[in-house]
Write a structure and sequence with these properties.
Number of strands: 10
Organism: Streptomyces qinglanensis
Shape: globular
Keywords: Transferase
CATH class of the largest domain: Alpha Beta
Protein name: Phosphotransferase enzyme family protein
Distance between the termini: 15 Å
GO molecular function: transferase activity
Radius of gyration: 20 Å
CATH topology of the largest domain: Aminoglycoside 3'-phosphotransferase, Chain: A, domain 2
Length: 353
């Protein structure tokens, strides 16, 4: 799982993570080594080095959120009890139980229904009471991640991807400022994951326990549409079949409605709006942003590796061209006019990651 921007070969960090995960000799299996995360496994536990720019106060809050009883069965709780450790080089580390991930080679078994249920439960759970966390709830970091993807594309060698990068830039320029992380997002008291995709699901206990959400680095208060936006973007790009999209969205809507009927849902408007008959007025701007983010990362990787875009990356760039060509450029967090889902191409690439 090497990343082109990872420093790579950081054996001291790998050893420190193995020790943190429970092996005093510092021997473990490196599961991921990227610029934003390094993960090492020892037995049934993993240790993670968070991004170099992770801020300790906000990360401590996010890890405590994962341990909070309000999110039991939704967010995988840490093995470290909510504590972080300072690793060689200054990065923050945490430990987590090992789960069974989604099989990327078995699209038919992709747990879209379970994903919709988990996100709805996350969005409708009561927030932890004041004083139970070590600090204030941070904002959801989805827009910041989109902006980082654009910055990465701009830094990467263009190779033969100059035209694709220009298409991505045009689509980016038409997004609302909050989606570009240039101003605060819509006011919200909904807890969001901030970076949902199927790689953020594991079964725990292994191998057949219930699905739970992992990776809390972007968790925070924000627009819950962002958590539904990547599947929405894939659907609009022709990458996610309609049946899977409807399974995901239907499971989300039923769970939100069930929480409301049970009196468990908060008074937040947005989860209920997303569960309504037409969620696209709320999904449109975040789905455009996630389309641009995916395309930017694809262009950056292809340029750095000196290769052509693969089929899924081409589909995301083509979707960016449609975004840039929409007749009415959105200028708010709830755009009007023609919507992204109305520009969906015919059957093409299929996939779920």
């Amino acid at each position: 799982m090497a990343d082109p921007e990872s420093p790579g070969g950081n054996r001291a960090l790998h050893r420190a993570l193995a020790v943190l995960a429970g092996d005093p000799r510092g021997v473990g299996e490196v599961l991921a080594d990227r610029s934003d995360a390094v993960v090492v496994r020892v037995g049934d536990r993993v240790a993670k080095a968070h991004a170099p720019d992770a801020e300790a106060p906000a990360l401590d809050v996010r890890i405590r959120i994962a341990a909070a009883p309000e999110y039991r069965g939704v967010l995988l709780p840490p093995a470290s009890g909510g504590a972080t450790s300072r690793l060689p080089g200054g990065r923050l580390g945490s430990t987590w139980p090992l789960g069974t991930p989604v099989d990327p080679d078995d699209a038919a078994a992709a747990p879209w229904g379970a994903a919709g249920v988990l996100l709805a439960r996350l969005h409708t759970a009561p927030l932890p009471a004041p004083g139970r966390l070590p600090g204030p709830l941070p904002p959801m970091r989805g827009p910041a991640k989109a902006a980082r993807a654009l910055a990465r594309m701009r830094r990467a060698p263009r190779g033969g991807q100059g035209a694709s990068a220009e298409v991505v830039e045009r689509a980016w320029a038409g997004l609302p400022p909050w989606c570009r992380d240039e101003e605060p997002g819509p006011a919200s008291r909904t807890l969001c994951h901030g970076d949902f995709h199927l790689g953020q699901l594991v079964r725990h206990p292994r191998p057949d326990g219930p699905w739970q959400l992992i990776d809390i680095d972007d968790v925070g208060l924000g627009d819950p549409a962002w958590d539904l936006a990547r599947p929405a973007a894939w659907f609009a790009a022709g990458l996610l079949p309609a049946a899977e999209w409807e399974c995901f969205l239907g499971a989300y809507a039923r769970t939100v409605e069930g929480a409301a009927a049970a009196g468990a849902a908060p008074g937040e408007h947005l989860p209920h709006a997303l569960a309504g008959s037409d969620p696209w007025p709320y999904l449109d701007a975040p789905a455009r942003a996630l389309t641009v983010q995916s395309a930017a990362l694809g262009v950056a990787k292809a340029g750095a590796e000196g290769r052509s875009l693969d089929e899924a990356e081409e589909a995301c760039v083509a979707a960016c061209a449609r975004i840039a060509a929409l007749s009415q450029v959105p200028n708010s967090s709830r755009p009007g006019g023609r919507r992204l889902e109305q520009c969906r191409p015919g059957p093409g690439v299929s996939g779920h990651r």
